[in-house]
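Hi R.,

Here's the input for the glycine complex you asked about:
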Amino acid sequence: MKVLVVGSGGREHALCWKLRQSPLIDELYCAPGNPGISQVADIVPIPSDEIHHLASFATDLKIDLTVVGPELPLTLGIVDDFTNRGLTIFGPKKQAAELEGSKVFSKEFMRRHDIPTARFEIAHDLDAARRIAAHFGLPVVLKADGLASGKGVLIPKTEEELEAGFKTFFEDRRFGSAGERVVIEECLVGEEISFIAFSDGERILPLATSKDYKRLKDGDLGPNTGGMGCHSPAGVLKSGAASEILDRIVRPTIQGMSDENRQFVGVLYVGLMLTADGPRVLEYNVRLGDPEAQVLMARMENDLLPVLLSGAHGRFDTSRLHFRKEAAACVVLASQGYPEKPTKGEAILGLEQAGNVEGVEIFHAATALKDGALVAAGGRVLNVCATGPQLRDALKRAYVAANCIRWPSKIFRQDIGRQVLERNAS
Ligand code: AMP
Ligand code: GLY
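And here is the predicted structure with glycine in place:
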């Protein structure tokens, strides 16, 4: 079979690595890919938002299945375009991708379907925003409506921060049209986890749980990022909690989308806060998490290809996904300046040594080749992933390998999984 993966990050590297293991694979392509991905797939130099170009490529090469990593092509309608051309693709159509593409849509959807989430109101202008924020009190959460690369959420704790936040949205218009409508919601307190499931539009196949560390710095400090590390299992769910999340949140979401004629096929990623009153949805994503995909692919036992293919045809041919008992962990190596303005162009050393650590797999994100040398080419550069019998083993291996890799501006969190380990030990 011929498969095309769309995207160029660590998530897509992990997807290609996993798909390459399928006995059903004849040809594997990735557009636009990265130097790490080129070790397991043929690179196609088409950017992931050039939908027509990608569709022509898939038609010409008679691609049997396309798998989309990032949200942008999904919200732009890549699945609609491919489907109209008779191509098989696993992902939500544009109308279903609104669950991630518009926070206003997703919050109102949850209200319509009684799916537990933070209380919220929507502000169209500064006066309304001030009034609503005063109603919730501080800290309060401000969210841009549209896609903002994970940077569209502000959580002001003081009046000064609140005014600065309003200025960002309504005066500076930092989020452009994505910030024309602002969701203002209560600030929830609790443990954050990611719950990810595949859906064929009706049936749901939950993946293993995972926990992502979104803040840049140790101790969950600093700005939000795309994710600085993660592990699977999440290690923080009490027994019965996963089925509560499925019954109260994931099933009603898939059912609600179907009832609204926005049938959801693809990956549903629910960002959750485990509050004292139960799980609450923070956000929906319509794709695999990055770096969650890296640890989930490392643990998945099923052959991914037939699962995604049957999902794309609206008929899962397996009733369950199976995950190895082993744990998996991922430490993201980024470049100084991330997430605002990462340093670029420095040569990366020590990869081979890192790759030799037991259980370790390194997935590339923003790397490039310059004069034959591998260089850091963006914010999140490499994902050092490891499996191990227990979470502590996986983390230990990932950190041993992470320390082998060098470039001058390398930064990474030292505390991925630490709190979970400490809590589970006590
Ligand atoms: P989102 O893009 O909506 O997931 O927001 C990004 C991050 O902001 C989340 O991962 C949380 O850490 C935080 N966040 C979002 N909404 C809330 C909320 N209502 N209460 C507390 N933290 C939140
Ligand atoms: N790791 C968070 C995300 O993919 O959105």
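One thing worth noting: The chain has 14 helices and 23 strands.

Cheers,
M.
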